[in-house]
Write a structure and sequence with these properties.
Blueprint (H helix, E strand, L loop, with lengths): L2 E8 L13 E9 L2 E10 L2 E2 H5 L4 H10 L6 E2 L2 E8 L4 E4 L14 H7 L9 E3 L5 H4 L15 E5 H8 L2 H5 L5 H14 L4 E3 L4 E3 L2 E5 L8 E7 L2 E7 L7 H4 L11 H18 L2 E4 L7 E7 L2 E6 L1
Parallel strand pairs: 7-8, 8-9, 9-10, 14-15
Antiparallel strand pairs: 1-2, 2-3, 3-6, 4-5, 6-7, 11-12, 12-13, 13-14, 15-16, 16-17
The protein binds zinc ion.
Zinc ion binds next to α4.
Length: 303
Amino acid sequence: MLTRRHILISAAASLAAPLAPRRLWAGTSLETGGLRIDTLSDGNLVMPIGFSFGDLPADQIAALLERHKLPTDQLTPPCNVTLLRDGTNTVMFDVGSGPDFMPTAGKLAEALDALDVTPEDITHVVFTHAHPDHIWGLLDEFDEPVFPNAEYMIGAAEFDFWTDPATLETIGADRATFAVGAARRLEVIADTVRKLADGEEVLPGLTARLTPGHTPGHMSYDIVGPEGTITVIGDAIGNGHIAFDMPAWHSPSDQDPVLGAQTRVALLAQLADSGATMIGFHLPGGGIGRVERAGDAYTFVEI
Ligand SMILES: [Zn+2]
């Protein structure tokens, strides 16, 4: 049986001043055949509308926002870090934003603490890609890895792209901080990081799948459990609204919008046909759900 529960965690409530609002972190967990998967909230981002919708006509943007009951001034996408525990390994997919990206993000430590998981417990960290909200939580204030016992893994193409000095020159001004931030962090783990190829087995029952476009070496991961596959899709399907309503839309949030759309269209079709459970880093409800067809488009169904 695939079971799921929602956990509302009141972290640090006892330390807060009596009248301060309680800070709540949402967690979601699945148990399937001896595997336990939790999504941990790293908080949320705050983005201008145009980052997701670009120059889509205003009436279409308004209709999308209304259909998904989203605010019209800015978007606040959630950040869901996936934790997989099989009794031996404790595997984390991405490390969140850390303290330096946005004040609304970087809450992963509290979420882990609420689950009684320490940074030392993490045996493997597997990156989907090296954008700030996924990798900037790698280092502590002494520039040491936050998860000292973990083996770090990332797509080989992703590592090569962000550590190439030419990337800073070619990526464009609005992503220059992404390039500097990723290179600085990847340099710290460069000697030990394991660079993954498309299709490579990461651990028994865990396979990397190249899903490029959002970034050049973006990886998704298939967790093959006794009750089916659970796919961690990172930002290959970057939100619960336009990515499902208009899968072929060239999203300004993808570094290569054409390749990003090709990847998204193929991944949505595959996930809808297989009925696999998927976990999206910026999808609602803790990010765990399924893809269903809705005419020419798709719907994200939280489970
Ligand atoms: Zn992201």
